[in-house]
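step: validate -> pass
step: tokenize input -> pass
step: predict -> running
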Amino acid sequence: MYGTIFEIKVKEGQEESLIELMNESDETPEGMVAWFLMRPDDGSDLVGVAVFESKEAHVKNANDPATNESFMKMMEHCESEPTWKDGSYIAGAVA
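step: predict -> pass
step: emit ->
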């Protein structure tokens, strides 16, 4: 599996709107296994995780114009572009 972990610095008062935006799509991109958004207990920036079946599926999603459109809407609620860490998931478990 492959994916990305990212941190989002949300504009003051925009967190709930960002979460609603991220939850509004009923469609799962082809090859996506899961995604999560975390509010850390320490109050730092939100942390997101996206998991794809393969690097190819991740890259295909990243290059999809619909993904860019969604990203641009998301950016309206952010202070700056997220920081990204892409890579292969090499260990883990699901319940």
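step: describe -> The chain has a mean pLDDT of 95.
step: cleanup -> pass
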